[in-house]
Amino acid sequence: MTSRGKALAWQTVAVLVTATIVIYFANNVVTNLAVRGIQFGFGFLWAKAGFDIPFHLAEWDVNFSYGRALWVAAINTLFASAICIVLASMLGLTLALMRLSGNLLAMGTSRALIEVIRNTPQLLQIVFFYFAVLQALPPMRQSVTIGTSVFLNVRGLYLPAASGTLWDWITGLSWAAVLIAALLWRRIGMQLPRLLVLPPVLILGLVVAGFTAQWDAPALKGFNFQGGVRVPPEILALALGVSIYTSAFIAENIRAAIIGIHKGQTEAAFSLGLTPGRTMALVILPQALRILIPPLTSQYLNIIKSTTLGAAIAYPEILQIFARTVLNQSGRAIEVMTLVLGVFLAINLVASAAMNAWNRKLALQGR
Amino acid sequence: MIRHPVFRALFGSKFNAVVTVLMLALFALTVPGLVRWAFGHAVWEAMNRAACVATDTGACWAFIKARFALFFYSVYPEAERWRVHLGLAVLVVIGAGALFSHGRRGWWLLGLLVVVPVVDAILLVGGIFGLTPVPTERWGGLMLNLVISFVALGGAMPIGIALAFGRRSQWPVIRYGSTLLIEFWRGVPLLTVLFMGLVLLPLFLPHGVNVDNLVRALVVMTIFTGAYMAETIRGGLQGVDRGQAEAALALGMHNTQVQLLVVLPQALRLCIPGIINIAVDLFKDTSLVSIVGLFDLMGVVGQSLKDPAWTGLASEGYVFAAVVFFFACLVISLGGSVLERHFSVAPRASKS
Question: What are phi and psi of A152, to 5 degrees?
Fold first, then answer.
């Protein structure tokens, strides 16, 4: 047989085998649904949900439809992911810098922490924070007080909320930006990667905006706290568990990326008279970032997937709401699982496309 | 003393000295309290939680002692636990043989792939040779984590090898099909996969066929691990020098022979570190089955916290589980590095 004929034959066989399997499964599904008296279809999405979602950023009411519940749960998933990505990056960078600091104590501590975190299950960490730490906190009236207006108790974390208008925030942020730009401009001009400027601008902006805005502090009145904003323990435990776990992996990625920059780069920068700090900021980090992006992408995607573990502590994310509550109420296994899987595949596609675009941009700039 | 390298590493520069002081302050804040809780004021002997609290303020390790066997076997009948031990012994002996033997590794590997699964399945499930059958509902604890890990890892190898070759195939239908499968399974969270196994798998099978809950979890975890395995093995296949395949072809070997006998063994050797990583991740992830109603170590700990006599001892339970998982992962990693050294290229080259 010619190689072309062989190729055609084998591929036909593969298609036929796959088709047979799919038809067999589909046939079983049709029989099983008929036996259970379920009609396949997504029409149930417009039916009234009738359950409460205890934590929601998007608007939610018991009378809303299942379709709206999908939206609310997806927003909750994305919200948890965003918090975890920010926290995990910051913790990971801290652990990596400790590991690279050259200080024996810091290096040893970082290494021990990373080993412990990486070798225990993520679910265990989340559940530990929820049941052993946050659920063991004192009740409302004996809240742990941090400063004057932050309270921590078994019902969650109570923070002051900014009640300033959008305009206050914009003014604050602009002032901060102008201030930082003025400070940085004379020293290094536009050499510093813009990404490194962003966090300090944001933090300073928040501080300045905080002064111009009005703060609404929580206060114990009767049996409950009035004012401020309550962060429920579910999101706290999920954020702590997922971001601490992932930070150990991110720390190792950052370390590998920084070590991966050839020593000659540092030596060349030193011989040009750059200080160690500027060598790090202007020579090493921009190049390390290029090595770092692919592994960092997969860690961020892992974070998004890991937020499903919130189901173990009843954080209302998409798996908890759909694969548990909606599935129990409606019994529509195939539709519900299709939606949940579809949401994750879509998030994955979008996130990896965005990171790839960023990667391509950085990779081209340098060469 | 000031010249001593340790002193210099701690106080060599201003920055270094500040970091050292900060770290020492952090230790002073956390370590004494933890040591007091875990050892100094811990209670080792007590009948229940109330007795613990009455004795001292530290950890109530009596809780762990009271439920120790449950954490490892759950409710596997006490009289039959020797079967679990024997199964583990068979695995360890044959596994060690495959790792350390010099002449007859082929036979040991065959034993590992055929004898161990069959013997262990007979031992754990029972029902023949006069062994009392033990339903999987009674399996649990760390034993369940180990069973799931080994089955999923063993099943993932052939799936991974097949998908890795498939993704490298020159035939587009096979290539795109394999890529689609790999990316789908890698794109979805393990927990949704477990829910799929729980609610979808029964729908895909003929009406009236009832699948055991453990089997559902095993099937999906195996396929899930297989997709990750495929990417690791593909990396290994890419790392094998082209000259190897060309030389084998020049010797007159058939293409299938070249791939299976020349390229694949070298690729597998290259990806041992990757496979060990998958094994560690898999072992940690077996704890997720506690969310879909199986009682692995995490599940048993969670259940034990609801025991009226010991209610609310979450710190003790989860710290214990963390220690067990930590050491188990350590063993896997150490075994992995032994494996890596054993199969590394250097000693072979020096032998010939």
Answer: -125, 120
Q: Are residues A237 and A353 in the same domain?
A: yes
**Chain B nearest-CA residue for A302:** B189
Distance (Å, whole) CA A270 – CA A272: 5
Are A230 and A84 within one domain?
yes
Look up the ipTM and state it: 0.88
Query: Does residue A307 lie in a domain region?
Result: yes
Contact list, B23 vs chain A (CB under 8 Å): 103, 105-106, 109
Residues B91, B89: Cα–Cα separation, whole Å? 5
- Tell me, yes or no, whether A99 lies in a domain: yes
Classify residue B274 as exposed, middle or buried by CB count within 10 Å of its CB (0-12, 13-18, 19+).
Answer: middle
* Amino acid letter, A218: P
Would you say residue A186 lies in a domain?
no
Closest residue on chain B to A130 (Cα): B314
Same-domain pairing of A30 and A90: no
Which positions in chain B touch A32 (Cβ < 8 Å)? 202-203, 207
3-state secondary structure (DSSP) of residue A220: strand
Instruction: For residues A131 and A254, state if they share a domain.
Output: yes
In chain A, how many domains are there?
A: 2
Tens digits of pLDDT across chain A (367 residues): 567 888 888 889 989 999 999 999 888 888 888 888 778 878 788 888 888 888 888 888 888 888 888 898 999 999 999 999 989 998 998 899 888 887 888 889 999 999 999 999 999 999 999 988 888 888 877 788 877 778 888 888 888 776 666 676 677 777 767 766 666 655 554 455 555 556 666 676 666 666 666 667 777 777 777 777 788 889 999 999 999 999 999 999 999 998 888 888 889 998 998 887 788 878 888 888 888 888 888 899 999 999 999 999 989 988 988 888 888 888 888 888 999 999 999 988 888 788 778 777 766 554 4
Q: What pTM was computed for the model?
A: 0.87
Please check whether residue A31 touches B, CB under 8 A. yes
Query: Residue A354 belongs to what domain range?
Result: 66-163+214-366
Contact B204/A127, CB-based, under 8 Å? no
